[in-house]
Design goal:
One of its GO terms (cellular component) is plasma membrane. One of its GO terms (biological process) is establishment of competence for transformation. By secondary structure, this protein is an alpha/beta fold. The protein folds into five domains: about 70 residues, no CATH class; about 100 residues, OB fold (Dihydrolipoamide Acetyltransferase, E2P) (Beta Barrel); about 250 residues, no CATH class; about 40 residues; about 250 residues, Metallo-beta-lactamase, Chain A (4-Layer Sandwich). The chain is built from 26 helices and 24 strands. The longest helix is centred in the middle third of the chain and has 30 residues.
Length: about 750
């Protein structure tokens, strides 16, 4: 049975790294092989085929939902799952789609934006008129993978609402309970944290709270998952077992032998079932989120084997739980929480297995816990590097202090307060007062921790590879024989060293900011930024994509910011960037920026040396507010040059023809509009490569087909961020190399445009 479960689970987990989804013909061939394997009773391999088909079916259905089910429809009916209100009175809605629907598929959702909506609350059912698009998102190193996250949440469309009509009022017992708890806890200073622990509602947590938890490596304490449900299970189990034992003792004292034997016989059954019902209620109140579902399934397996009193190893229980999770949620491998939760459990089990024969005195147990926490910290840091592109240096000691405190004190008191508030209303405020006082000290500790050096480190690709090698080597040296551990360490450290030796002399990054432009020219830790992308409705491409990318690229000194012109899709992130990098020299003709920042310069033609590169401002000769007033820049050295032309149009291109504007790579003027890219201009630049920055299926229909045809007629290789994601050009002495996020950096099926 274990091998069968392993085969099914391994196939589903492998979906995380598939480069493409298998075609229908391939899937039919795999099914045929599976039938042959069943005929020859090769159960583990047949289970692997089942897992392969199970994952492929759901992934394909999600990918094709928009084109096959929704098509050109403009109406959806859905239940509000979550909403976020922005400063301009617009809201972002997560909606479970009730219609149109598709059989044989789990419920799917949509992410919708609505400007100035009527009053709307969670759990209401609405009929929406929408403008919908495929869930294709901007993808860049360091900014998280929104497209993968959309698949993991079964999100099949995104778009905006043009109008809506309420179909049904909120009719959710959970919503009513949370509303009651929110009102009751609003009077307490830490009511937001208590509400998150009681009901999994983290909407009241401020960004400062989240920063404190993330920078201390304790964010898992705010997500109702394995720790919380496990404590709830044990807490309830011990109470029920104590009650049953008391009845057994009373029956013995009163000489009621039948009662005593009956209670004694069913003590474990009642205790396990009662604990399971308690955990189920807790998970329901938490909304059965993905992490909560997995923890609940694992505890359900534990309860089942406890009730039937059948012995099964903890590894087998973990494998059963994993298979059940993947059967229930085949897209779970795309979610970070699956790897974090099962990775943590696996690490704990391996550690306990290694130390099961060691002395078990109090001091030895305390040392064992500290060592296990150290190994867990190393493994979770590795997962954090891979999933979140960063880590904190303080997770070891904060978790060493807070995990026991939460397990022994805070979570049990929270559960007691929850029951009291639900059953006795305001009579239970004394317990909440105690909880509020107890929780104050760990929150103060976390707030202090977030101010310490190393609270959150974002590493470059090379640094991440080197640190990952060190962490894996440390774990290998701990668990493997020393000679094998050193072999693993040496092998893992070789790759980063080779990468350092082959690093480029400079790089060009065209950041994927949708229908806008943001370019980074990098020389080691120094950079020049040309445009910053758009910002609107509480969303900023700079905050979401450009700033994380600058940190991920290891840029500590931003020497220049050139804002080509004032259009929002080019200058929307300029102000927050200058706040983050106050010593940056600003070059622009925009008055609203010239008045707010120093040092500053205009875009008049000139040339200067920037470290190993030459920077040439080619135009305009006079400031202008139209597209032809864009700052045109050529950057490069004696081997390679790049031309950045903003949104110039035909007139602006004609004025440039009198200069030497030859370049190896050029950014398409005005995102590939047909009012730009004249044949004379293209021939004067004589570039081998043109890079277009545009949004997928943008409303301007850019780049224009005629412009693409002109580029190809001039034998230019065309790259478009809409289909490639972030584009990176590495310049070496005699050649350059082009890579994109969707094709080389993260070439997986869920990152592709479809």
């Amino acid at each position: 049975m274990e091998r069968i479960l392993f085969g099914f689970s391994a196939a589903c987990l492998s979906g995380l790294v598939w480069p493409v989804l298998p075609s229908q013909a391939t899937t039919l061939g795999v099914i045929g092989c599976g039938l042959l394997l069943l005929w020859f009773k090769q159960w583990p391999l047949a289970a692997f085929v089942c897992g392969f088909v199970w994952f492929q079916f759901h992934a394909t259905q999600l990918r094709d939902w928009k084109s096959e089910v929704f098509q050109d429809a403009t109406q959806i009916s859905g239940k509000i799952l979550a909403l976020k209100t922005y400063s301009d009175a617009s809201v972002s809605l997560d909606v479970e789609i009730l219609s149109p629907s598709r059989r044989y598929l789990k419920p799917v959702s949509a992410r919708l934006h609505w400007r100035e909506p009527p009053p709307i609350t969670v759990a209401e059912v609405w009929q929406f008129e929408v403008v919908a698009k495929e869930p294709v998102y901007s993808v860049n190193p360091g900014s998280g993978d929104a497209q993968k996250r959309a698949f993991s949440h079964y999100r099949v469309i995104k778009g905006y609402v043009t109008s809506g009509q309420r179909v049904a009022e909120a009719n959710s017992a959970r919503h009513d309970v949370i509303a009651q708890l929110t009102t009751q806890l609003s009077q307490f200073s830490h009511g937001d944290v208590i509400l998150a622990l009681m009901a999994g509602d983290r909407s009241q947590l401020t960004s400062a709270r989240w920063r404190d938890f993330r920078h201390s490596g304790t964010g898992h304490l705010m997500a109702i998952s394995g720790l919380h449900l496990g404590v709830a299970y044990v807490f309830t189990y011990l109470i029920l077992k104590g009650i049953c034992t008391s009845f057994t003792f009373i029956g013995f004292v009163l000489q009621l032998a039948k009662v005593s034997r009956l209670v004694s016989r069913y003590t474990l059954t009642v205790s396990h079932l009662g604990a399971w019902f308690c955990c189920t209620g807790y998970a329901w109140l938490a909304g059965f989120e993905i992490a909560t579902q997995r923890a609940w399934m694992m505890l359900s397996v534990l309860a089942l084997y406890g009730v039937i009193r059948q012995h099964i190893s903890v590894w087998d229980r973990l494998l059963v739980a994993l298979a059940l999770v993947l059967l229930w949620d085949p897209m779970a491998p795309l979610s970070a929480s699956l790897w974090l939760s099962f990775g943590a459990l696996g690490t704990i089990l391996i550690s306990l297995n290694c130390w099961q024969n060691k002395p078990q005195g109090f001091a030895a147990k305390l040392l064992q816990f500290a060592r296990m926490q150290l190994i867990l910290c190393a493994v979770m840091s590795l997962f954090s590097l891979m999933v979140f592109d960063g880590l904190t240096l303080h997770s070891f000691w904060t978790n060493l202090l807070l995990v026991p405190l939460f397990s022994i004190v805070i979570i049990p008191v929270t559960l007691t307060a929850l029951v009291g508030l639900l059953l006795f209303n305001q009579s239970a405020t004394l317990v909440v007062d105690i909880l509020n006082a107890v929780i104050h000290w760990p929150l103060a500790l976390l707030s202090w921790c977030s101010t310490l050096p190393g609270s959150w480190l974002v590493l470059t690709r090379i640094e991440q590879a080197m640190l990952s090698g060190v962490l894996i080597s440390a774990v290998a040296l701990f668990f493997l024989p020393r000679s094998h551990g050193f072999l693993v360490a040496g092998a893992l450290c070789t790759g980063p060293v080779i990468a350092l030796l082959n690093s480029p002399s400079w790089q060009l990054h065209v950041v994927d900011v949708g229908q806008g432009l943001a370019v980074v020219v990098q020389q080691g830790p120094h950079a020049l930024v040309y445009d910053t992308g758009a910002s609107s409705s509480g969303f900023s491409y700079y905050r979401a994509h450009l700033a994380p990318f600058l940190a991920k690229a290891g840029i500590s000194q931003l020497d220049y910011l050139i804002v080509s012109h004032g259009d929002n899709d080019h200058a929307g992130g300029a102000k927050p960037l200058l706040v983050d990098y106050p010593n940056t020299e600003l070059i622009t003709d925009e008055p609203w920026l010239l008045q707010q920042h120093r040092p500053v310069a205009n875009c008049r033609p000139r040339q200067w040396r920037w470290r190993a590169l030459s920077v040439e401002l080619l135009a305009p000769k006079r400031a202008s507010r139209d597209n032809d007033g864009s700052c045109v820049v050529r950057i490069g050295n004696s081997e390679h040059k790049v031309l950045l032309s903003g949104d110039i149009q035909l007139h602006g291109e004609t004025r440039l023809l009198r200069y030497d504007i030859a370049a190896d790579i050029m950014l398409a003027p005005h995102h590939g509009s047909k009012t730009s890219s004249s044949r004379a201009f293209i021939e004067a630049v004589d570039a081998d490569v043109v890079i277009i920055s545009s949004g997928f299926n943008n409303r301007f229909k850019l780049p224009h087909a005629s412009v693409l045809n002109t580029y190809r007629q001039h034998d230019m290789a065309v790259f478009n961020t809409a289909y490639e994601g972030q584009i990176r050009v590495d310049f070496f002495q005699n050649f350059y190399r082009i890579q994109s996020y969707r094709r080389q950096m993260a070439p997986y099926w869920y990152n592709q445009v479809y």
